Automatic annotation (TrEMBL):
The keyword Glycoprotein does not apply. Keywords: Membrane, Transmembrane, Transmembrane helix. This is ABC-2 type transporter domain-containing protein. The chain crosses the membrane at residues 28-48, 60-82, 103-131, 143-167, 188-221, 227-246. It comes from Silvanigrella aquatica. The keyword Translocase does not apply.
C-alpha cells in the first residue's frame, strides 16, 4: 500500500474532522488537558508512597506514559475498526469495496480519525523526552529494545481488538467492543509485581494486553529482555489468526460484489 494513499486518507479524514471546528478544537484541548492533569495528579498522589509491592512510583509513572502513548493509537485504530464492522454488520460496505485500496487498509485505516493519532504523537514525544532527560536511555540498546517493545505491544493490542471486533459477525447484534476494550485496558494499571513469575509469563503469552503497559518498563528499567521474546509468541499467533479472518472476510464480501 502506497504511503501516499495513507497520508491522503488521513488528510481527508482530518479535513472531515475540521469541518466541525469547534467540536474538533474543544475535544482536542479537553482530552489533552484532562490527561495532562491526570499525569500531574498521578505524581502528587503517589509522591506519598515510593512503591507498591516492589513497583516504584517511577515505574507507575512510566507505565502510565506507555499506557497513554499506546492507548490513543489503539483508540484511533479501534474507531476505524468499529466503523468498518458497523457498515459490514449493516450491509453498507459494498460502496467502499469499489475503491482501489487493499482490504486490510479498508479495515484498519480508512475510517481512522487523526485527532487521536495527533494526541498519541504528543504523549509519545513527551514520554521519550522524559525518559531521555532522566537518563533511562543510558545505551542505544535500551532505546532500541524499548522502542521495539512499544511497537510490538501496539500491534498486539490492535490485532486483539480486531479479533474481538470479528466476533460481531458471530453475534445476533453488534457487540459493545469499546466497553470490552476499555475494561481490559484498565487492568494495565495493575502492577506486574503482584503476579508470580509463572502467572506473569502466562499472561504475556495468553493475554498480553493486560500487562502491555508494564512490559516495556520491565524491559527498559529491569532488563527483563526475555519478555521481548515471549511477546513474539502472541504476536505471531494473533497475526496468523488475523490473516485467516481477513481472508474469510474477503470471501464473505464477494457476496456484496467486491
Amino acid at each position: 500500500m502506497s504511503i501516499k494513499i495513507l497520508f491522503k486518507t488521513l488528510y481527508y479524514n482530518f479535513k472531515t474532522e475540521l469541518s466541525y471546528k469547534f467540536d474538533f478544537i474543544s475535544d482536542f484541548i479537553l482530552t489533552l488537558s484532562y490527561y495532562t492533569f491526570i499525569l500531574y495528579l498521578f505524581k502528587i498522589i503517589f509522591s506519598y508512597n515510593n512503591s507498591f509491592d516492589f513497583w516504584r512510583i517511577e515505574d507507575f509513572y512510566i507505565s502510565f506514559l506507555v499506557f497513554l502513548s499506546m492507548n490513543f493509537i489503539l483508540e484511533a485504530t479501534s474507531d476505524s475498526l468499529n466503523d468498518f464492522f458497523d457498515k459490514l454488520f449493516q450491509g453498507k460496505i459494498d460502496s467502499y469495496l469499489c475503491k482501489p485500496i487493499k482490504f486490510y487498509f479498508l479495515i484498519f485505516i480508512s475510517f481512522m480519525m487523526p485527532t487521536k493519532i495527533l494526541i498519541a504523537i504528543i504523549f509519545n514525544i513527551y514520554m521519550f523526552f522524559y525518559l531521555y532527560f532522566n537518563n533511562y536511555f543510558n545505551s542505544f540498546k535500551n532505546l532500541i529494545l524499548f522502542l521495539v517493545s512499544i511497537i510490538i505491544v501496539n500491534i498486539i493490542n490492535i490485532l486483539f481488538t480486531f479479533i474481538i471486533h470479528s466476533l460481531t459477525l458471530l453475534s445476533d447484534k453488534n457487540l459493545s467492543v469499546g466497553v470490552i476494550q476499555y475494561n481490559i485496558m484498565q487492568l494495565c494499571f495493575v502492577p506486574p509485581t503482584v503476579f508470580s513469575i509463572s502467572t506473569l509469563t502466562t499472561l504475556v503469552i495468553i493475554l498480553p494486553t493486560i500487562v502491555s503497559s508494564a512490559i516495556p518498563v520491565l524491559i527498559l528499567i529491569y532488563s527483563k529482555y526475555y519478555f521481548l521474546y515471549l511477546l513474539l509468541i502472541p504476536l505471531i499467533i494473533m497475526t496468523l489468526i488475523s490473516i485467516i479472518i481477513i481472508k474469510k472476510f474477503m470471501n464473505f464480501v464477494r457476496y456484496f460484489g467486491g
